[in-house]
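Problem 12. The chain below contains 84 residues. Write out its predicted structure in token notation.
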Amino acid sequence: MADVAALMAEAKSLDLFHPHGAFEVHCVHCHARLDGNGDCATCGLIGRPALELERRASADPDRVEKLLKGAIAKRRAYTPAAKG
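Solution.
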């Protein structure tokens, strides 16, 4: 559970949490199309509140840890497209 807490803190520091409305289909950060959960496969944005993942971590910490690690890695690797 300590790993999940550290990952949650890092995800919050990277501003990965941005709950979306049901009608939103594009990421507010990079404008890529969101998946069915409201997450962005391009920049790692998580379309659910942090509290929801904290609650899920108590039941399934491995799954939440995997989600957070993936989102953090995507955000670190993300570079905006050059405007030209």
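Discussion. The longest helix spans residues 61-77. Students who got a different answer should revisit the alignment rule from Section 12.3.
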